[in-house]
Amino acid sequence: MNYDRPELLDRLAAEYVLGTLRGRARRRFEQLLMTLPAARVSVDEWNSRLARLAEPVPAIVPPPRVWAAIAARTSARTAARSADAARETARQSRWATFWKPAFGFAFGVALTVGLVQIHPSGLVSLDDLANESQALPQSYVGLLTDRNNQPTLLVSSTRQGTRVTVKFLRPVATPAGKVIQVWALPREGAPFPLGVATSASPPGSTTFDMSGSSDKLLATVPRLAVSFEDAPAGARSTPGEFVLVGFCVKLW
Amino acid sequence: MAAAPEWSEQSRELQAQLVRVGLGDRAAFQRVYQMTSAHLFGVALRILNRRDIAEDVLQDAFVAVWHQAGSYQAAAGQPMTWLITVVRNKSLDVLRSAAVRRETALPQDEDGNALDLADDRPDPLGLLEQASDALGIRRCMDALDAAHRQCLALAYYHGMSHSEVAEHIAAPLGTVKAWVRRGLDRLKRCMAQA
Asked: Would an 8 Å CB–CB cutoff place A44 in contact with chain B?
């Protein structure tokens, strides 16, 4: 089949979405979807068009047992071990949200601790030394990596302090007009913003102040992330796509 | 990516909730269910015509939403579009599976002829007309023969294959394929002009 003709591709996309493309032809098209961006665009457009046809379909409230079953199958206790989660996680294309560190939690922690020991001076700025309360050893540390698992930012703060130090291990190419927004990803609930980091060239550091102390804000936060936002995020903001993600460990 | 400026209030809220679902927020997940499950159940039931199977499909669909919400991107389309797509695709997969075909096969008399059981789902052509009205493309769509529109409607709302449509309206398979294609072309053209 010649996929070069755009009208043929569009027709296949339409029939794929409608559901009349089946069997071997459907499987071939699904493979094409994974490799040809134009096919994906076509399918997205047809999804939008045909979904509008569903609007007048009468709503019918499902019985409570349906939600009960859904809740049971997605509960935090079973999710980690269920086959569902394994299947679905394997299909994640958006890596940052179901981020899996290259070598697991233990390595992530070890790497973080190791870097702290190699670069102790990088974690405490001269300004901090002048301010005694901030001159304590850093307690909360996060090593944020990029899509390719390259360590990019070392984020740290003291327990009682409100100041966060961000050390640039690699340059962060910030899009024009955007800010580097650092987020805390708590164990339960939605991410909340910590603050905006000014960019620096490696191995430089910049700092920002949080609205509360690290112990108050980061005690139940296992992960940190960075997204590029148009403006500093407010308490109720939802993050854009994460470009850097990492563990937040409490060293002491 | 942020919601587009022309999205409705509901769409924006759904998108915000889905982002939270993608990060494991269970309250947001329940909110998405409250906002959308009735409509999605209606869509599934219309295709499957069996309550028990439709309930299973709805369940599977929402479990998939829980695990895949992180990969839904606003750039690909509105949140309800994505949810409808998930439910429709699962419904069609189930409908086509041999097991369901066996279970829902029409009963037969002693000569092996299929007993004629009335399908109690209302004619989908009416739904297509309603949708066209809502989209402001009724006149444009009505320029197409009712028979052509009915093929599209049967395929969309009842999830029928080309062969099933052909059998349902007693028309040749080749004709039905051409009519479905014409219906899709017209829909695209009408929506582009609206």
From this structure: yes
Burial B91-105 (b: 16+ CB within 10 A, else e): bbebbeeeeeeeeee
**Alpha-carbon separation of residue A243 from A105, A136, A172, A174 (angstroms):** 19, 30, 10, 10
* DSSP-based three-state secondary structure for B98: helix
Do residues B153 and B115 lie in contact, with contact meaning Cβ atoms separated by under 8 Å? Answer: no
Residues in chain A: 252
Q: Which residues of A touch B41 (CB under 8 A)?
A: 59-62, 66
A91 pLDDT exceeds 60? no
Name the residue type at position B160: M
- Strand-strand pairing, A223-229 and A242-250: antiparallel
In sign, the C-alpha dihedral spanning A237, A239, A244, A248 is: positive
- Give residues 100 to 119 of B whose Cβ lies within 8 Å of A: none
Residue of B48, B53, B66 to mutate, testing the A interface (most A Cβ within 10 Å of its Cβ): B66
| ipTM tops 0.85 | yes
The pLDDT-based confidence of A114 (bands split at 50, 70, 90) is: low
- CB neighbour burial string for A163-189, b if at least 16 within 10 angstroms, e if fewer: bbbbbbbeebeeeeeebbbbbbbbeee
Q: How far apart are CA B156 and CA A104, in angstroms?
A: 45
**Token reading at B131:** 């949708």
**CB contact B67 to A (< 8 Å):** yes
Whether B43 contacts B84, CB under 8 Å: yes
